[in-house]
Amino acid sequence: MIEIDRQYGRKTLWLDKAMITECLQNIFNNAVDAMNEEGTLRIHLESGKGKTRISISDTGSGMDSIQLQNIFEPFYSTKHKSGRHFGMGMYQVRKVMAAHKGKVEVKSKPGQGTTVTLIFK
User: What are the helix (H) ranges across the chain?
Assistant: First the structure.
């Protein structure tokens, strides 16, 4: 079972719905897979200083520095090679954020989970 902890107020952003939905779905899928279907998913929205940040954190397995360096590369996957993962999720996230003139930051440590932050101007 996965617990979802939402912490956000109200902020209007003009975004492409389909692109942002794909972006968030990729991040959520990665988080659920990393938590092995058990843990906590935190969603936090923060606005200020002309920027809006959406942070998505999980209590999953985390990634080491080598994995972090490669996660935006097309066809790179940290998941087991089961044949159902193509390694395009985070590559697409970065493309979507670039299309919205934003950026994506990822922080992670093995055994401590991962936080993906989408930053919109």
Answer: 17-34, 65-70, 89-99
Of the candidates 10, 116, 120, the one whose C-alpha atom is nearest the C-alpha of residue 56 is: 116
**Tokens representing 19?**
């692109």
pTM: 0.89
pLDDT tens digits for range 3-18: 888 887 777 788 889 9
The strand pairing partners of 28, in sequence order, are none
Question: Rounded CA gap, 9 and 43, in Å?
Answer: 11
> Which CA distances in Å does 19 have to 24, 100, 102?
9, 9, 13
Q: Distance between CA atoms of 45 and 6, rounded to whole angstroms? A: 9
